[in-house]
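[agent] plan:
  1. take the single chain provided in the ticket
  2. run structure prediction with default settings
  3. attach structure tokens to the ticket
  4. add a short note for the reviewer (M.T.)
[agent] executing step 1
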Amino acid sequence: MKICYGFAMNTTLLAQWQSNSETNTTAIVIPDGCRDLIMRMSPGKTPYWFVSSLGSCTYTVSIKAGVFMQGFRLKPGVRIDEERLLASIQNQNIEFEDVYCRLASSVHLSPSVSEALDCLASDVGSVARAARELGVGQRSLQRLLTRETGQPPVYWMLLARVRKSARAVLGPRPLAEIAVNHRYADQAHMSREFKRWLNISPLKTKFEIEVLKQLSQPGYS
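[agent] step 2 finished; step 3 output follows
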């Protein structure tokens, strides 16, 4: 399966990607904090558009030979009027350039959400501390992110931590030190979080090419 990434200037668009499978195959998808607008075109069928959900664990997808997909990766924290967006492009003869206009009218990223996610990804240590640094109550932060993103603050904090830790594993530091640096209780705690989110141990992460490839692509943290 060949995947190519590209970028476009848009306040809510993080990246574009394409996938073209020549044989029946499978692919893993690791949590990245993003939702994607995806067009899937199977041989002999009309294009089908859908919006991916926020992942909380790594999962596997099966892809049939000849399937082409075009993806528009949205920034973490966006609110999507999914019904309106899909109604504007489903079963329509639409150029990919026109998708930007449809996204602009159906997707919104609140500045307060963006600020909150930046804070939670900054090794803040706890949701309570993040709320203090943002100058809001913990319940207010909980309501804001749950309403706008569908996920609570702890989801975003733990996701950022495991993604940063996974990239750190590639470096020379021992796993125990990486665990401490990223505020895990100990190495065993970090290993449990790796298994939960990435379905892999920290030690094996550096040898999983697909995991490393996805960690290097645009996403949360």
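[agent] step 4 note for reviewer: Residues 2-108 form a domain with the Immunoglobulin-like fold (CATH 2.60.40).
[agent] ticket updated
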